[in-house]
Amino acid sequence: MSKKSPQLRFEGFTDDWEERKVKDIFKITRGQVLAATETSEEKSDISPFPVYSSQTKNNGLMGYYKDYLFDTAITWTTDGANAGTVSYRSGRFYSTNVNGVLISDKGYTNKAISEILNLEAWKWVSHVGNPKLMNNVMGDISIMIPSSFEEQDRLSNFLNQLDDTITLHQRKLDLLKEQKKGYLQKMFPKNGAKVPELRFAGFADDW
Fold this sequence. Notes:
Elements: E1 18-21, H1 22-25, E2 27-30, E3 49-52, E4 61-65, E5 70-77, E6 86-95, E7 99-103, H2 111-121, H3 135-139, E8 142-145, H4 149-186
Parallel strand pairs: 3-6
Antiparallel strand pairs: 1-8, 2-7, 3-4, 5-6, 5-7
């Protein structure tokens, strides 16, 4: 293993990775202002395109809108507490003005590159006043990336599978939390009551 390759790799890849500046492989732009009142909470035929903003909750999804600005790109939060957070966005989407957007017609807009950049970008956030990571600063960030698109694709597929698994388990966790909340409401007496609504078999005494 050299300093220009990772410790763990898929079989068949031996070439050194290469160091590239963001501005050399991406067109750097920004989203546009969009009021939350213009978006819909649910996806529909009228509002089919996801809108991404600066929050990290729900992967930055603010709602859905009738138009889109980009088709598969990498976004990052430019301002505020989440400045420097980088995300891969697959398919057509709208991005608000608090996100910078990286576009490439050469194939660099993939999950692997976004995760590599996400590990580096936070180091470049300015913390003078409101945290910021502006377009010109993002453009000067250098990252080590696989020299072949084939390796980028393998990494992207692997990372997407991991994210899908995390999402699945997160939904199960959320459901279990709701289930627990429901049990807590029924397994303890309500105000003024001496017995709970729901009990284990064999117990009948007042609390």
